[in-house]
Amino acid sequence: MGIAEYEIKDNSLKVTDDAKRHFDEDGCIIVRGLLSDSELQKVHRTVENPELVKHQYGRPDKKGKEPKLVLWQHPGNDVTGMVARSRKVAETCQQLLGGEVYHYHTKLITKEPYIGGTFEWHQDYGYWYKYGCLFPDMMTVFVALDDCNKENGCLQVLKGSHKCGRIDHLIVAEQTGADVERVQEIEKVCDLIHVELKAGDALFFHCNVLHTSSDNTSGNQRRALVIAYNRASNDPGPHEKHPGYTPQHTVHISHILIETNKNINISELHAYIFHFVFIYRLRILP
């Protein structure tokens, strides 16, 4: 069995009892067409801005290939911020996690043609636990900006693995990854799913779901906007690597097309990402 799939209707997503049940049981759901073609085009123009791209960084995997990312803390009022604050993203997470959420961080991840590298098996909470978050009341929304398939390194998940709890994370192939022996045991009981997405589709997944992605062996790039949320009740307060709870003001997704014609506030973005470029230069994140 694969991952349960749902579709956007009238530019909104209703989290039904069925969707909540699948999220709780499987740790993830797929939402097809989360971003419309016009919304996706707007995001493309934003993430292709050289002022953003130049901040991407990475570390070679065991094959010498390199996935790249840039990460920022606050959603702001630019196009990517409108996606993170949109009701069809943020309020969906709120319903799936069962309480008020706030934006934890956003990443732009790029796997360039032929040279984009692997991310080892890990749980997002394997990192966030160390940042003071006491409970795994957190999740991620992986929004495909390009088609994601096996050839260009789509996500792979172990369905239902969130029920195994937090796995110890160690240095694996120069990345911080989940304990390899424990992952091998979990692979025996949880289905491995290749999450193939069309551009604009998204995977909503729990922070304890084990996931990985292989290198890009194709001639097509693979980009994703990866947005993380934390329950307000799980706020650890200000931390070296995260500023803590900030009330989230959700917006209708139409703000992407109507109110953000300038694409992105580069000076604002520089302030958001500078701290992370400095801190994470020595360690690549999932």
Please render the helix and strand layout as text:
Elements: E1 5-7, H1 17-26, E2 28-32, H2 37-47, H3 50-53, E3 68-72, H4 79-85, H5 87-97, E4 101-111, E5 119-122, H6 125-128, E6 138-144, E7 155-158, E8 169-172, E9 175-178, H7 180-187, E10 192-195, E11 202-206, E12 211-213, E13 222-231, H8 255-258, H9 266-280
Parallel strand pairs: 1-2
Antiparallel strand pairs: 2-11, 3-4, 4-13, 5-12, 6-11, 6-13, 7-10, 7-12, 8-9
Describe this structure in words.
The protein is of the alpha+beta class. The chain has nine helices and 13 strands. It starts with a strand and ends in a 6-residue tail after the last helix. Strand 1 (5-7), helix 1 and strand 2 (28-32) form a beta-alpha-beta unit.
Question: Count of helices?
Answer: 9
Mean pLDDT: 89
Distance between the amino and carboxyl termini? 26 Å
Quaternary structure state of the chains depicted: single chain
Shape: globular
Q: Please give the share of residues in helix.
A: 25-40%
Radius of gyration: 17 Å
Summarize the helix and strand pattern as letters.
EHEHHEHHEEHEEEEHEEEEHH
- The low-pLDDT segments are 270-286
Number of separate strands:
13
Strand order of the largest sheet: 1-2-11-6-13-4-3
Strand content: 15-25%
Summarize the biggest pleated sheet: 7 strands, mixed
Category from helices, strands and their pairing? alpha+beta
